[in-house]
Amino acid sequence: MTPDPKTDDDEIVTWWGLVIEGYLATQDKLMGEIAERFGLAPASFDILMRLVRSPEHRMPMTRLATEAALSSGGFTKVADRLVAADLICRVPSPDDRRVTFASLTDHGLEVANKARAAAAEILRRIVLAPLGDDAAGLAEAMRTLRTYNGG
Rounded to two decimals, what is the model's pTM? Predict the structure, then answer.
């Protein structure tokens, strides 16, 4: 589908504003419920979700920080909190002493699986219920934008 070059400037800026506002409202609701149920801040939840979906539930810490869009200092603070809560541990790479993995502990795996299930339940209620079949189209549209814009 070719975009209409005659789309009014205000209209297209408004459309994008609605995308952002919808995302922020939905993310706030999701993260509020996750924080209430599990005591997880958004960055901690994001890291747990990335690890629970990774092979062996571990990932090099530098890659994890990059994927989570955190600075090295910001990531270190989040990782320290997750270690203190016994959700992750730091594991040196047996193959490269420059690499340290973040790995879910048994407790971390349990919490991550419960948080993932809760997030899915919440998203069914706050995304799928209001959007219905449009939810899959929205996800595909956002995937297209991520790919097109270099994400």
Answer: 0.86
Q: What are phi and psi of 105, to 5 degrees?
A: -80, 175
For the chain, the 3-state helix, strand and coil shares in percent, each to the nearest 5, are 70, 10, 20
Whole-number Å distance between alpha carbons of 115 and 109? 10
Q: How far apart are CA 82 and CA 26, in angstroms?
A: 25
Inform me whether the pLDDT recorded for 1 exceeds 60.
no
Three-class secondary structure of residue 2 per DSSP: coil
Q: For residues 46-59, b (16+ Cβ closer than 10 Å) or e, as one string?
A: bbbbbbbebeebbb
> Which whole number is the average pLDDT over 71-87?
93
CA–CA gap between residue 49 and residue 51 (Å, rounded): 5
11-46 pLDDT per residue, tens: 999 999 999 999 999 999 999 999 999 999 999 999
